[in-house]
Design a protein that fits this description.
mainly alpha
């Protein structure tokens, strides 16, 4: 029990540390939030311009969900990159804490920050276009989003090892992964318009099922019991990706320590 409490305190310490980082760079946080709002508005205005209310809602939900998922992914995937920017990577990786406690703290902050960030974007979009939730199944949408968050945590942890393995190019590879997920996941369009080989990739992305399930529950009021085609893949992906992320991170950490990559900055 004492060891568990120590690990939980360590996890909270990383939540608090990331909060302090956000406060220190609040100017950048405001800039990124303004960019996210502008992007979401620009995409949603396409639906308004077409005079198609259903298209507008589809685009709004896509913009809101991608904002949340991309924020969660970015905070987790850039865990090592941020440590290296701050000059604390070697100290953090050599600290007497369990690595899962470190990652849990980073993931908890990523989810919390993503929810706050996305709530602001959602509020602005509702102020512009409105959003009738009278027929929506909020519980189903929340359940799908929670399962999707777990899957994205796993992908984020796997991607976070890139800066450990490739000091010079790892940071750039994070954005390549994020951009690829945006293209294949049907954020602003149906994956049916994609070429067959890209549709196959889309079915490997948890964002595809999150977007499909949340859109169905919020726009059409589809209950959770009718969303098995989205639930099952998300459950399977969560069970696979999170353990895979922990294992991959551990292997990459040992490799970085053995080769001296922790000390390198480029």
């Amino acid at each position: 029990m004492t060891t568990l409490l120590h690990d939980l305190r360590a996890s909270y310490a990383f939540v608090e540390r990331n909060l302090f980082l956000s406060r220190r760079y609040w100017g950048w946080e405001v800039a990124f939030l303004a960019y996210s709002i502008a992007g979401a508005l620009s995409v949603s205005l396409i639906g308004a311009d077409q005079g198609d209310r259903h298209l507008l809602l589809v685009l709004m939900v896509g913009a809101i969900l991608w904002n949340y998922l991309s924020v969660v992914f970015s905070w987790i995937a850039e865990t090592i990159a941020v440590e290296r920017w701050e000059g604390t990577l070697e100290y953090t990786m050599m600290a007497p804490i369990r690595r899962w406690a470190h990652l849990v703290g980073s993931c908890l902050y990523a989810v919390g920050y993503g929810l706050v960030h996305t709530t602001v974007v959602f509020a602005v979009l509702v102020a512009f276009f409105g959003f009738d939730l009278s027929n929506a199944d909020i519980g189903a949408a929340a359940a799908i989003l929670a399962l999707g968050s777990v899957s994205f945590v796993g992908i984020g942890m796997i991607t976070a090892i890139m800066p450990l393995l490739y000091v010079e190019r790892g940071d750039q590879m994070i954005y390549v992964v994020q951009s690829s997920l945006l293209v294949v996941s049907g954020v602003y369009y149906s994956i049916d318009v994609l070429p067959p080989w890209m549709q196959a990739l889309a079915r490997l992305s948890p964002a595809t099922y999150v977007l499909d399930g949340v859109r169905a529950s919020l726009i059409d009021g589809v209950p959770l019991t009718s969303l098995g085609h989205d639930l099952v893949p998300l459950v399977v992906m969560g069970l696979v990706l999170v353990p895979a992320g922990l294992v991959a991170f551990g292997l990459a950490e040992r490799y970085a320590k053995r080769t001296g990559a922790l000390k390198r900055v480029g």
